[in-house]
Amino acid sequence: MDEVPHGLLPTELMIGHPEVDAQHDEIFCRIETLKAVMLEDGQPHHAEFDALIAFFELHFATEEACAQAAGIDFSAHAREHLKSLRILSRAVADLRDGRLDLRTFLRYLEYWFEQHINDFDKALGHRLEDARARGSRSLRSPAGIGLSA
Asked: Where does the record locate the signal sequence feature (predicted)?
């Protein structure tokens, strides 16, 4: 599998799709940065949380576009993305209003993201790989000679 830019994405969480893996790595980097900065001063940095949620929106759109391009039904996964964005947005609002502890949220955020990759994105990676394999087989003649696309 390709290396990821920051190297924070654990190997066991890679799904084998370079763009998605790079975005997962970026999210882990952003979470680590949030933890380092916010736990040092004990204050939530709301703009950084807003930027993280915006990056999740971009990332989820990337996964959806990959699935669509591969002809994969993504409806259940997309519903999970919407649910996750609602939960994360509500949690950030609770942080702003002082109803949620910063440390609790940061622990949850990292745990939730790892679980999302394990429960949803790894399956997506397998399905994308299957679609790539089917696509490359469809470009071959019966004798196994590659045809130009």
From this structure: none
Q: Which helix (H) or strand (E) holds 82?
A: helix 75-96
What are the distances in angstroms from CA 149 to CA 134, 136, 137? 14, 10, 12
Q: Is residue 140 part of a domain?
A: no
Tens-digit pLDDT profile for residues 50-72: 999 999 999 999 999 999 999 99
Could you tell me the CA-to-CA distances from 98 to 38, 43, 69, 102 in Å, in that order? 15, 11, 42, 9
Q: Which two tokens stand for residue 14?
A: 């890679």
Range(s) of the domain holding residue 97: 16-124
What total of structural domains would you count in the chain? 1
CB 17 within 8 A of CB 128: yes
CATH number for position 35: 1.20.120.50
Cα(102)–Cα(95) distance, integer angstroms: 7
136 three-state secondary structure: helix
Q: Would 75 be classed as within a structural domain?
A: yes
**Which residue blocks in 2-74 are alpha helix, DSSP H?**
18-41, 46-70
| Segment 70-83, tens digit of pLDDT | 999 999 999 999 99
